[in-house]
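Quarterly update, task 2.4: zinc ion-bound model.
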Amino acid sequence: MQLYNKLSAKERAELIDQAGKKRLTLSFYQYANIGNPQILRDHLFLTWDKLEVLGRIYVATEGINGQLSLPADRFNEFKNHLDSIDFLKDIRLNIAVEQDNKSFLKLKVKVRNKIVADGLNDDTFDVTNKGIHLAAEDFNTYIEDENTILVDMRNHYESEIGHFKNAITPDVDTFRDSLDIIEADLKDHKEDKNLVMYCTGGIRCEKASAYFKHKGFKNVFQLEGGIIEYTRQVKEQNLENKFLGQNFVFDDRRAERISDDVIANCHQCGEPFDVHTNCANEACHLLFIQCPKCKEAMENCCSTTCMEINRLPFEEQKELRKGQGNSNDIFKKGRANHLPHKKDLRNIFDHFQKK
Ligand SMILES: [Zn+2]
Ligand SMILES: [Zn+2]
């Protein structure tokens, strides 16, 4: 029995090209009580590997969270399999707006303590006491209401390239940080305002809305299915799209374009641009925004120091890295003082001053 991925990304990419089949990228999640995540994990791997599913799936005692791709012509088999599992029956699948056959190149099904690393102690509040889910049309109405405070629950590098009109986009590195900042800044409005929140696919808001209700917020709402499902409904129902720019996603596509607005800037020259890249110096790998001109001039590096290192023969680069260890990934996401045009995100205080 093969229970783990065996092919390299390169081998897999070649197989996908050879197959020449269209693939679908999608995501889903469900909070549920899972008695033995390891058994479910193995079952999913064995079944989905046969269906040529690729992606990253987390299974925990609190539920499942999956982002994956599969050949379009196997979709029905996949759906039938989901429907055969009690708590996954009729689950909403978020189908990606922009498709890319190589969004995932490995199948990884992992058992984790939680399906989202949210840093919360769930024993301290009732996670099932969630906010009210809003479909796209109602969401559009709510966010135009002057009694609404609209909060982006994602991290700074996500909201920088795209967010809803009038949203507060906390300048945070983690979900956990954003909860404290939002609660502190909105503490005087727990009863008189609508707290409306959104994230990529809705999963972060499932916890956040329960958390804020526990903290005493009276009117808590969340965008159902996140930006991904919103975009689908806007298209299907011909609604006004109020999302500006690109939706950051966690696969090799990096982002999907929702509107033509370019709301970010190249971090090096400041020109309007909204596509992330990673610094070519492997030891740095900083995630930042770089326009094509700067990319060429800087050889895809974030600084002249990285450029010099990146020019060295690989063996010398490895020598330099020895003993340095890997720094924390969080601080590798567009946080570097040498990037002059990293955008200052709107904080909540600004929001109230502008109103
Ligand atoms: Zn530039
Ligand atoms: Zn760098």
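Highlight for this quarter: Residues 266, 268-269, 271, 291, 293-294 surround zinc ion (ligand 1) (CB under 6 Å).
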